[in-house]
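Write out this protein's structure.
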Amino acid sequence: MSAQRGGFTLVEVMVALFFLSLVVMSLAAATDYANRVVTRSRTELAAQQFLTLETERLRLLDYAQLQDGKRTRGRGIAQWQVVDSSTFRQVLLETRYGTPAAGLVVDTVVIFRRR
């Protein structure tokens, strides 16, 4: 009678560890990607809010007060140019929000104001 020993061989353990390490590395990469997507989405949302705020601020100015300008607020920079016409003023607004390292969002909008 021979006694059989139960358990795993060294090769089986090594193969199992290899597949386990692949799963762990895949999950780590997926988590890193998800974090970058969330950070980018937050930056884009804040940039959109900044653009909306600056657009509304320029729309509320008196017609006579509209002139070229630049304004910095937090991580955002707004710069606008006013083109005069006989019946309206065109305001070209460009906003930059964020940082190059974390993501920079650049938006442009044109606003028309009648006299």
